[in-house]
DNA sequence: AATGCGGGGTA
DNA sequence: TACCCAGCATT
């Protein structure tokens, strides 16, 4: 005997546990479904409800909407975000009135998708929910259900992955009961198969969910990959006095290594050289840089380029704290003897750099 | 094939 | 704070 399909299990669950009282589910005409679908793009149900009620009160049908001013429409959208949705909605209403006698081309999904603001998933949702014809949706809920049910790895933002998700969503979609199925799979994603703390024990398809069977539910769908860390390179001055001490500066409280002591650092070698010439004219800068040091922060990669300079002792040189960086907050500096490590906080990569330096 | 759009809810 | 939300249009 053939076991129950995904759709059959889902539909019987929906019959008892599904949401049936959302405003747009009452009298689901194409117009009412359309407005709800546009509002619900990237916006949660709880947020939409009040906006939807007010919108329907003011624009009860497509002709009212088409003849309204854009300003009126946008006013009803204020606070919802993604305002191009409202402009497209308004424009779409005018197109439908002018070109389609005020009716959606429900028999032609491609024609639906050609309308402003209506993409593949919204077109399918309008068709299925308002006319009960079979059409495949793939919104955030369905993506999550599909990723888990088939244990699909990969971020759906990638084109190839996205195509696979559409294919799997298509496979799950039954030939009949299009409206109920469409609402059911969204309800599953919204109420049980949630992004966090999904209630798998209540799930009507848990017995065949690969993600659950493989204990991967919490890792699916795969998150958007963190983009590669940008690399920043900065030039650090190793100013060596009498082959004994190095110049350190205390960093500003804000930014990386805030408050720690560190080598003076600059955006470019030229900037470093200019500062050195002005501050320690007697210093001699080596032309060959030292070996670069790499360091990784949470949000970028830092390439440390050290340059060594030598300073012969001149009695009377200012030993006390001095200021630098005229445009920045005053910063103190000190001479540091690496052979007698003082009680100052050095960033790890700088400490490592100094350990490798011959004075 | 990747980005911008936007405000709100949630852990 | 970071992530996610009934995605689409644009580049």
UniProtKB/TrEMBL annotation:
Transmembrane segments: none
Function: Adenine glycosylase active on G-A mispairs. MutY also corrects error-prone DNA synthesis past GO lesions which are due to the oxidatively damaged form of guanine: 7,8-dihydro-8-oxoguanine (8-oxo-dGTP).
Keyword Iron-sulfur included in the entry's annotation: yes
Cofactors demanded by this protein: [4Fe-4S] cluster
Alphabetical list of SUPFAM superfamilies matching this protein: DNA-glycosylase, Nudix
EC number: 3.2.2.31
Domain of life the protein comes from: Bacteria
Cofactor binding description: Binds 1 [4Fe-4S] cluster.
Keyword Cell inner membrane: no
GO biological process: base-excision repair; mismatch repair
InterPro entries referenced in this protein's UniProt entry, alphabetically: A/G_AdeGlyc_MutY, DNA_glycosylase, Endonuclease3_FeS-loop_motif, HhH-GPD_domain, HhH_base_excis_C, MIG/MutY, MutY_C, NUDIX_hydrolase-like_dom_sf
Keywords: 4Fe-4S, DNA damage, DNA repair, Glycosidase, Hydrolase, Iron, Iron-sulfur, Metal-binding
Catalytic reactions of this protein: Hydrolyzes free adenine bases from 7,8-dihydro-8-oxoguanine:adenine mismatched double-stranded DNA, leaving an apurinic site
Protein name: Adenine DNA glycosylase
Domain HhH-GPD: 39-191
EC class name: hydrolase
GO-annotated molecular function: 4 iron, 4 sulfur cluster binding; 8-oxo-7,8-dihydroguanine DNA N-glycosylase activity; adenine/guanine mispair binding; metal ion binding; oxidized purine DNA binding; purine-specific mismatch base pair DNA N-glycosylase activity
Sequence similarity: Belongs to the Nth/MutY family.
